[in-house]
Amino acid sequence: MKQDSPRSATYTVECEDYVHVVEFSPFECGKAETLIAYGGSSYIVIGTCRFQEEDSEVEGIEYKSLRTFHHGARVDAIAWSPESRLDALPQLRFCTAGGDQKLRIFASDLRDRNEFKAIGEHTDYINDLVYDPRDGKQIASVSDDHTCRIWDLDGNQKASFMLRSPGMSVCWHHEEAFKLMVAEKSGVIRFYDIIAHQAILSVECGQLPLMSADWCLGNTLKVGAVAGNDWIIWDISRSRTLKGEKSNSVLKKKGLRILTELENSGGQEPMKIYLQLLDIQER
Length: 283
Hints:
Blueprint: E1 2-3, E2 11-12, E3 21-24, E4 34-39, E5 43-51, E6 61-70, E7 75-80, E8 92-98, E9 102-108, E10 114-121, E11 126-131, E12 138-143, E13 147-152, E14 157-162, E15 167-171, E16 179-184, E17 188-193, E18 198-204, E19 210-215, E20 222-227, E21 230-235, E22 240-246, E23 255-262, E24 272-278
Antiparallel strand pairs: 1-2, 3-4, 4-5, 5-6, 7-8, 8-9, 9-10, 11-12, 12-13, 13-14, 15-16, 16-17, 17-18, 19-20, 20-21, 21-22, 23-24
């Protein structure tokens, strides 16, 4: 990984082919490292990142590749299982959505065992997927076929929610294990009760198209989205918009992540919300 000029990326990883999707693991892996996966036309690379903020021996950031997997189709989305670990008994578990509209589960011990299996498919392109953050025994996916589906690890469909437009993002929060957040291209974000199988809350962007949305890991009341020329943050306890930003040109972003939130101590200053807008360039 090298440092680039100030007007370009801070760090760059050279890749043999174009990169279509990048996903950091939101789970602890047992070391002072963060798992990262990226995928292209027919491959997935798994690696680790070490950051200076987490390891004083690191100067800035360090990246290390661990394993490359053949995928057999374009990689459209990646989700990390909470079971992925890098400690004494390392194991990698993740799920992908392919351009062939199929879900695939991968497992590796970073030694001799490298397995994958197809577990299910949609009838149109899959835009996002996520593991159940409690135990990783179920996966939710959203697609251009106007559905959100929940699968077990054997590919059995456990639930399906009909959407009114293509599903662009799906989030499963570790503090709200019986709810799913589903963002639709029409600009509507709905929360579903997965026990009652019904929608219980919704917010609207007022902008089209919605490209990506995220549910803040540190605060279940904060939701963010990129839609039209705006990025938007909601406080869903009051169903109001907290912060937004317009751009002079259309935001060509592949995704949005709410990284963290710092509440002010005195109550006089606005809260600060840090975002990551993922702009993946194909070359």
